[in-house]
Specification:
The protein is of the alpha/beta class and 436 residues long. Helix content is 39%, strand content 14%. The N and C termini lie far apart (66 Å). It binds ligand F0G. The site of ligand F0G has 23 residues, from helix 6, helix 11 and helix 15.
Length: 436
C-alpha cells in the first residue's frame, strides 16, 4: 500500500501518487513526493536496526545504497518493479592531512559519489526514476544533460528495456560522459545551445510526446538522491556533522539534501540539522548571487565554466534549494575555475580523485574557512559528485599548463626520456641509489 502523495511546493495542491505528473498542473510549480512518515516517528532505533540488518543481506534491494532505505524513499513499493545496479554504497573518506591542511579544517570527510556504477551520484536518483517510468508504463525516457544524468539514464534505461533519448548542449560535455551514453545505446543528440535550452526542449517534448522525462524536475529522482545524506549519516553512526558542502548546478542535490535532513529529523534519526552550503562556479552562479540578496529575486545567467557538469544558468530546482539553505541556516557562494582546478588537483593527489564540478565543494569549503563562515574546528563533509575519469582531458590540460584561464598551481608534468638509467635517476629526488 502506498500512502504517499504529490504536493506542489508553491500552491500546496495535492495530487494522488499514481498520477503521472512532473510539475503542478495548477500553477506549474515543482512537486514534492510526500510520504506519511508519522508511522515511524519515535521508532528511529527500529529503523536503524532494519538498515543495519540489510547490510548483512545479499538481496539486491537490500544491498543497494538507495533501496536499503526504502521506507524513506518509496514506502510500500512493489520490490519486483525495482531497477537497481547496486547503486550507492559509496565511501566516506577521512581526508588526508595534506588535504585537510589545504582546506583549513581539522575534521574533513569526503563522500565520494563518483563511486556509483556509472561514476556519479545520478545513479541514486535514476534507479527510482526508471523504476517509476516502468510503473507508469513508459517505453521510452528522455533527459537533457551536461553528461552525468545522461550516462546514468542510458545505463538504467537499457537495464530496464526502455529506449533512451538524450539531449546534450553542443560541444560542452566531457568525453567520458558522451562515450558512456553512446556505449549504453542511447539515442544521443547535440542541441545548438546550452544546457538550459536543451532542458526547455525536453520539457516541451515530454509534454507533447509519449516519452517519460527523467531530469531532476522529476521528484522521484530527488527521492533517490536523498540517500546520499541518509547513507552518510548511517556511516557516521547517525552523528551529524556541522556542515555538508555540495556543488550546485541544476540544484537537484541541494534540494534533495534539505528534504532528507528534515525528514530524518522528523522521524528522530538525527537530533539536529547540519548547515548545508551550496557551491557554484563563478561563471554559473545565479543561486549564490540570489543568496547575497536573501533570495529576494532571481536572475538567470548565461553560464560558462570549466566545470561543464555545472555549466547551468537557470537551475530547475531553484525554489526547493532555497528551502534547504533557509531551513538549515546554510550558505551559498561561488568559486573561480582557478580555485576549482587547484582544489581538484589536491583531491586527486590525495589518491581519491574527482571531476572538476565535484571539487567545487572542496574549493568552496576552503573559501568559507578563509572568510570565517566555517570554523576550523567544525566538522565538514564535502560531497564529491563525479569520478576523476569522467573528464580526463581537463586533467591533461591542467597538468600540462594548457588551460586558457587557469594557471595550474600544482602541475604534475609528464616527462619523456630516451630510456637510460641515468636519465631516470634524475627524476628521483635525493640519493636514488639509497631510496631504491
Ligand atoms: N556535480 C556533477 C558531477 C554533476 O554532474 C552535476 C549535475 C552537479 C554536480 C550538480 O548537481 O544539478 O543537482 O545541482 N549534472 C547534471 C547532468 C546537470 O546533466 O548530469 P545538481
Amino acid at each position: 500500500m502506498v500512502s504517499s502523495i504529490l504536493r506542489c511546493v508553491d500552491c500546496q495542491t495535492e495530487y494522488a501518487f499514481e498520477k503521472n505528473l512532473y510539475t503542478c498542473p495548477t500553477c506549474g510549480g515543482l512537486l514534492d513526493v510526500v510520504h506519511d512518515l508519522a508511522a515511524w516517528k519515535g521508532r528511529a532505533e527500529e529503523l536503524r536496526h532494519l538498515f543495519n540488518e540489510r547490510m548483512r543481506s545479499w538481496k539486491a534491494v537490500d544491498r543497494s545504497g538507495v533501496w536499503r532505505y526504502r521506507e524513506l524513499i518509496a514506502p510500500g513499493i512493489d520490490e519486483k518493479l525495482i531497477v537497481t545496479r547496486g547503486e550507492g554504497n559509496t565511501t566516506l573518506y577521512d581526508a588526508t592531512d595534506a588535504l585537510s591542511l589545504y582546506v583549513g579544517v581539522n575534521r574533513l570527510q569526503l563522500k565520494h559519489e563518483g563511486e556509483n556504477p556509472t561514476g556519479s551520484f545520478k545513479d541514486r536518483g535514476m534507479s527510482p526514476g526508471v523504476t517509476r517510468a516502468r510503473q507508469m508504463g513508459a517505453t521510452a525516457v528522455i533527459c537533457a544533460s551536461t553528461g552525468n544524468t545522461s550516462a546514468s539514464m542510458a545505463s538504467f534505461a537499457s537495464l530496464a528495456g526502455l529506449r533512451a533519448l538524450i539531449l546534450f548542449p553542443e560541444g560542452k560535455v566531457a568525453v567520458g560522459k558522451v562515450a558512456q551514453s553512446i556505449a549504453y545505446g542511447a539515442v544521443s543528440v547535440q542541441v545548438r545551445g546550452d544546457f538550459d535550452a536543451a532542458l526547455e526542449l525536453v520539457r516541451e517534448a515530454s509534454d507533447k510526446l509519449p516519452i517519460y522525462m527523467l531530469n531532476s524536475i522529476n521528484p522521484f529522482r530527488l527521492e533517490g538522491q536523498k540517500t546520499i545524506i541518509i547513507e552518510m549519516m548511517h556511516q557516521r553512526n547517525w552523528q551529524v556533522p556541522d556542515w555538508i558542502v555540495v556543488p550546485g548546478g541544476n540544484l537537484g542535490n541541494s534540494a534533495a539534501f534539505g528534504k532528507a535532513l528534515l525528514e530524518m529529523q522528523e522521524i528522530g534519526l538525527i537530533d539536529r540539522l547540519p548547515r548545508v552550503a551550496v557551491i557554484q562556479a563563478e561563471g554559473a552562479a545565479p543561486f549564490a548571487k540570489a543568496f547575497e540578496h536573501e533570495f529576494d529575486h532571481f536572475e538567470p545567467v548565461r553560464a560558462e565554466t570549466v566545470a561543464t557538469a555545472i555549466r547551468i544558468g537557470n537551475p530547475a530546482s531553484y525554489k526547493k534549494a532555497i528551502r534547504t539553505v533557509v531551513k538549515t541556516h546554510g550558505w551559498a557562494t561561488s568559486v573561480s575555475d582557478q580555485d576549482i582546478m587547484d582544489a581538484k588537483a589536491q583531491v586527486d593527489f590525495a589518491g581519491i580523485g574527482c571531476e572538476p564540478a565535484s571539487a567545487a565543494s572542496v574549493a568552496g569549503t576552503k573559501k568559507l574557512v578563509e572568510q570565517g563562515v566555517i570554523k576550523p574546528a567544525e566538522e565538514v563533509v564535502c560531497v564529491l559528485t563525479g569520478h576523476v575519469l569522467k573528464d580526463p582531458q581537463v586533467v591533461i590540460d591542467y597538468h600540462g599548463q594548457n588551460m586558457p584561464n587557469v594557471d595550474a598551481k600544482f602541475p604534475n608534468r609528464m616527462h619523456t626520456i630516451y630510456g637510460t638509467l641515468d636519465e631516470l635517476v634524475e627524476f628521483l629526488p635525493g640519493n636514488a641509489a639509497v631510496r631504491l
